[in-house]
UniProtKB/TrEMBL annotation:
Record key words, sorted: Acetoin catabolism
Protein name (Swiss-Prot/TrEMBL): Acetoin utilization protein AcuC
GO molecular function per UniProt: histone deacetylase activity
Gene Ontology biological process terms in this record: acetoin catabolic process; epigenetic regulation of gene expression
Bilayer-crossing regions: none
Pathway(s) annotated for this protein in UniProt: Ketone degradation; acetoin degradation
Similarity comment: family membership: Belongs to the histone deacetylase family.
Coiled-coil stretches: none
Domain annotation Histone deacetylase: ranges: 22-312
Length: 387
């Protein structure tokens, strides 16, 4: 299904590290790459390095005074609360600019490869820092690498870019950067802002001409409801928008085991979402797909398996869910974390959903969330909101 696929990786990406007690532990991407390597998934891709994003590149989405502030913190390790650095979410640390610029550079390298036709799909599992704002850090995010990739693509001449964010938290930073730009369609499926950070992402936040799309799902939503919502909103909008390239943020903190949120997806439901996005990239964006990681705070049981499935799906070599995790990887997990690793690549679920076209139930909170989004944005795209 796919031509050349690139995975952008440098061991130095693990330097994006807020400290030993912070939820966003870099071991999660280290374990992901180790699992993908042991399963042979990386044999099916081109593994390439990256360079830090330059200041003028970061300046496509961030204010210069903010970049300068991050650099000052980077030199001293001292907080700058005006820049959002030095909080419990975003602790200040020496080297923060270099670490953050490298993550941004990795996603930029992925975007460059796809735009130049050097790869059909490209992935940066260390990226997806979607909460960073133009002038401040937020929600574990210093530089907004998905936003940077989109801005760079527009600068290169892309007429339309579609962004789909499946992180459990609203993709507020990316939405804010392109809220009034009709060339960028941002779609975020997330837990309701009534119950989860960042408190934004209501269906009424529609941007210019309906190009900001928000599906705010109730706490407790699992595979069936999430996939129902995805299919009710994402495919019709992507087909209508007709973008030249798809950028996605693949946060896996929607999993039932994630300690920071309240959705109930399984690994198998998430894997199904990867399959659907892969198909939609080919159907609606000429196969051009840039994917990043994102949130995910169950560091051993969820993140490595989820993003190994993502890489495998993009590479066209999907991993059988019943596959056992390699002995070498399990030993590495115990050595690095002291935790008991998962034995297989599945949670043992077989995700199914009922299509909204078969009718909706106004008493069902998931269906109410779906219809709130469709009613808010579908007419702005010339689509009928009714199933």
């Amino acid at each position: 299904m796919s031509d050349a696929v690139r995975v952008v990786w440098d061991d130095a990406l693990t330097s994006y590290d807020f400290g030993p007690r912070h939820p966003l532990a870099p071991v999660r991407v280290e374990l992901t790459m180790a699992l993908a390597r042991e399963l042979g998934v990386l044999d099916a891709v081109e593994l390439v390095g990256c360079a830090p994003a330059a200041d003028d590149e970061l300046g496509l989405v961030h204010e210069r005074h903010y970049i300068d502030a991050v650099k000052r913190v980077s030199k001293t390790g001292r907080p700058d609360l005006n820049a959002g650095l030095g909080t419990s979410d975003n602790p200040a640390f020496a080297g923060v600019h270099e670490a953050s610029a490298l993550v941004a550079g990795a996603t930029l390298a992925a975007a460059r490869a796809v735009w130049a036709g050097e790869a059909e799909h490209a992935i940066n599992v260390a990226g997806g820092l979607h909460h960073a704002m133009p002038a401040n850090a937020s929600g574990f995010c210093v530089y907004n690498d998905p936003g940077l990739a989109i801005a760079w693509l527009l600068e290169q001449g892309a007429s339309k870019v579609a962004y789909v964010d499946v992180d459990v938290h609203h993709g507020d930073g990316v939405q804010a950067m392109f809220y009034d730009d009709p060339r960028v369609l941002t779609i975020s499926l997330h837990e309701s802002p009534r119950t989860l950070f960042p408190g934004t992402g209501y269906p009424e936040e529609t941007g210019i001409a309906g190009t900001a799309v928000n599906v705010a799902l109730p706490a407790g939503c699992g595979d069936q409801g999430w996939l129902r919502a995805f299919h009710a909103v994402v495919p019709p909008l992507l087909r209508e928008f007709d973008a030249q390239i798809l950028v996605s943020q693949q946060g896996c903190d929607s999993h039932a085991l994630d300690p920071l949120a309240n959705l109930m997806l399984s690994l198998d439901g998430q894997r199904t979402a990867y399959q659907e996005l892969h198909k939609l990239a080919h159907e609606t964006a000429g196969g051009r797909w840039v994917a990043t990681g994102g949130g995910g705070y169950e560091l051993v049981q969820v993140v490595p398996r989820a993003w190994t499935h993502l890489i495998a799906e993009a590479a066209g070599v999907p991993v059988d869910p019943e596959t056992r995790t390699p002995d070498e990887w399990r030993a590495f997990v115990r050595q690095r974390t002291g935790e008991v690793p998962p034995l297989t690549m599945t949670d043992g679920r077989n995700p199914e959903y009922r299509d909204i076209a078969q009718g909706f139930d106004p008493a069902d909170p998931i269906d109410r969330a779906i219809m709130a989004t469709r009613n808010a944005v579908f007419p702005l795209h010339g689509l009928d909101p009714m199933p």
